[in-house]
Structure to design on (140 residues):
């Protein structure tokens, strides 16, 4: 969901500016996503939508900005969970739903693994748990 303009960076360098890159995944690299960079929305659901469809927020790239960098929903979710835990050396305590690990999870309004990726941007967070404690619940 980058806002980097090909004109300001150059067409050749554009391919290296924005992750994800399936070639890096194919190499065995661990992809870690986060929401702390100002060119992407803080909402992880929108960032997953962007990684999977490569569509931009402004709607200027309906087929995807650098479309060869599209990744699967599974790869994007793994990057946000196990990948980010790995990047902060916390993968033994969080990042996957495993007995003994922190129960950090969200319940979404739709199954993002089953819907058309273009619909992911409409998905809402219904509930959030951190370390097994309910910290957010959507109002109806």
């Amino acid at each position: 969901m980058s806002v980097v303009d090909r004109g300001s960076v150059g067409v050749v360098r554009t391919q290296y500016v924005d992750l994800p890159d399936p070639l890096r995944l194919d190499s065995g690299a661990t992809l870690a996503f986060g929401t702390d960079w100002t060119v992407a929305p803080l909402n992880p659901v929108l960032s997953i939508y962007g990684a999977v469809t490569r569509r931009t927020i402004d709607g200027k790239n309906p087929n995807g900005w650098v479309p060869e960098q599209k990744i699967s929903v599974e790869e994007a979710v793994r990057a946000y969970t196990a990948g980010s835990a790995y990047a902060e050396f916390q993968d033994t305590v969080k990042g996957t739903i495993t007995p003994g690990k922190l129960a950090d999870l969200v319940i979404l309004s739709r199954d993002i693994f089953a819907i058309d990726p273009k619909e992911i941007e409409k998905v809402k967070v219904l509930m959030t748990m951190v370390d097994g404690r309910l910290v957010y619940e959507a109002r109806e």
